[in-house]
Each structure stands twice: as structure tokens, then as C-alpha cells.
Amino acid sequence: MFVRWQSLDVATDTPPLPGFEEVARARHFDAPEALDVTFYEIRARSLLNRLPERSRMPFRWTINPYRGCAHACVYCFARPSHRYLDLDPGRDFERRIVVKVNAPELARAELARATWRREHVALGTNTDPYQWAESRYRLMPGIWQALRDAATPASVLTKSPLLLRDLPLLRELASGPGFEAGLSIPTIDERAWRETEPHTPHPRARLEAVAELVRNGIPTTVLVAPLMPGVNDRPEQVERILEAAREAGATQVSGIALHLRGEVRELFMSWLRERRPQLVPLYERLYARGAYLPKQERARLQQLVRYEPGSPRTASNSPVSISRSISRSIASRESAGSSPVSTRRWMSRSRQRRNLRISST
């Protein structure tokens, strides 16, 4: 069988992935970034995920080739999705990564169906498709090729400049059915970055990726999210990002306030007590009534992210309108007190298991 990756150390004594009836193939990589990470290779039964009709997102379809994320962002809203696998949303989410090794083949097959209507497909809505694992498994080129060949518009949100590896394919998508990139850059403050997202590429590298994408004609958004009171919300901190984004030529900058739901709230507060104990009373007060900041505080944070690009693109059917709609959708959900998008939260654990065919070799 053709293998996309090299330099593997195959673990033979790793127990089966909890929550599955069959044994997944578990691998370790002999690389500093992944020495304590286990990658569970599975053969998924389906890849395209349809969002519920009640979703306010401006797209209906998503693709997530990985589950779990080695970026280890303390605020990540996707952490509870690991519970569906009977895995911990804390350490397991960061160190036990599920890899859908047949994702490119599935994408091509599902997008080739006669019933496919070429609707927008979003990637990076749950976990980062360009996290470290992608440098070894190389699933994304095949997915982009399938989207291109199916004349399907797409977008991606990532924290990694690794997406530049696939720049030729992204250019083809942008000049064809349509493509937009989003780089998540919550801060360029060195301390805040290292503490809140310890295994992500440097924010400056992400800004360089923004500039390169724009130079290649790809509409690119900088997402300043989440904005965390007392951590990355000082006006001078945000202004530095706006200036850097403007210099890079970002088409748009959007900001989203931190939301803390369920287990993410527990994990974040634990981190806060350890790293920023002086902020604990503030957060207990701000989030006393639920997962979202009070309306007045959200409005304050939104005012910080006021961006005027050098050459704005305002066409209503341009890819940029997707990012603008996403930001507005999230804001409206916050106002209504509803939850953020999670592409798996409506699916029962038993159904998820049925949807995945595990490789037992």
C-alpha cells in the first residue's frame, strides 16, 4: 500500500483507541514535536459533514481530516469533542490524535456524486487541518485536488504557515470555484502566545503566510480570536496585530471574544489559576452568568478590532463575505446565548463509531 509519510516508529504495544470496538493502528513519530503524541490511523466511512439546518453558519458542509489537535490551545472550543471517543478533553485532546488516513480518497468519491451541488465546504472548523500531523500525513493536497476537480468553493482556517506548501492548489481554487484563507492570530505578544497556544507556529510566521497568500491573489482574513480579558485585550496589543495585518495586506480582520462552555471552562480556569491567578476574580465575575461575556464587555472588545484594509473587497459574492458572515454569525449566537459551531455535537457517540471503519492491521 502506498504510504504518504516517512520515518515512522510503529507502536506495537499501544492499547486500542478507547470508545471503538476495533483496534486502530497507532503510530509514533521520531520527531521532537511528536515524541509523546500517539496518532491513531482510522479509515473513515464518510468525510463530508453536513451542519444542522439550525446552524447560522454561511456554509453547510465541513471537512475535518483530524480529530484532536497538538496545538494545545488552552481555550480551544473543540476539546469536548474528544469525549465522543472516551478520551479526555485535556491532555488526550493534545496528545492522542485521530487521523483519517483515507480522507483524500473519500473526498474525491463524495464530491463526485451526482447529488453533490457544489456548495461551499469549510475546513478548520473543528481542529486545525494544518497541525503538525499534516506535515507527515499530507492529507490536504488530495482534499484540495478533489475540491478543485469537483468545482467546489472552499475555505480554511488555520494557525499554521504549512498551508503555503499547498499554494499552487490554493491558487487554482481561488481562480476557479473560489477559495479564501483565514489565519488565526489571537496575539503577537510573546508571553501570551507561549502560554495560551504553546505548540503553534510563531504568530510572525503566520503573518508572513498572510502576506504570501495575498501576494498570490488569495483573499485572506486575520482572525483575532479569542480575545481574552487581561490576557491579549490591551489596546496596544490588539493595535500591533492590526498594524501587522495591514502591512501584510490582510483583506479583513475579525475579532471574537472568548467563550467558556462546559469542560473548556474548567480547563481554562485551571490554567488561569496556575498562570494568571490575579485574573481569576475577574473571570469569575465576567462569566458568572454563563459561557459568554456580558454584552457591554463584548462590545468593548469588538471596538478594539476596527480594521481598514488598503484595498477592501466588498463584492457580496466574494469569498471575503464568508468570513464576514462567520464573524456575524458567531456574534449573533453569543447575543442569543447559544453555543458555537461543533460539527459533531449533534451526533450520538454510537453513531460516530458506526461512521468510522477502523483499520485493524
UniProtKB/TrEMBL annotation:
Keyword Transferase: no
All residue ranges annotated as the Radical SAM core domain in the record: 55-302
Record keywords, A-Z: Iron, Iron-sulfur, Lyase, Metal-binding
Keyword Hydrolase in record: no
Bias (Low complexity) ranges: 315-345
InterPro entries per record: MJ0683-like, rSAM, rSAM_sf
Top-level taxon of origin: Bacteria
Listed PROSITE patterns: RADICAL_SAM
GO molecular function, one term: metal ion binding
Feature: compositional bias, Basic residues: 346-361
Disordered: region residues: 307-361
SUPFAM superfamilies assigned to the protein according to its UniProt record, in alphabetical order: Radical SAM enzymes
CDD domains: Radical_SAM
Any Pfam family: Radical_SAM
Protein name: DNA repair photolyase
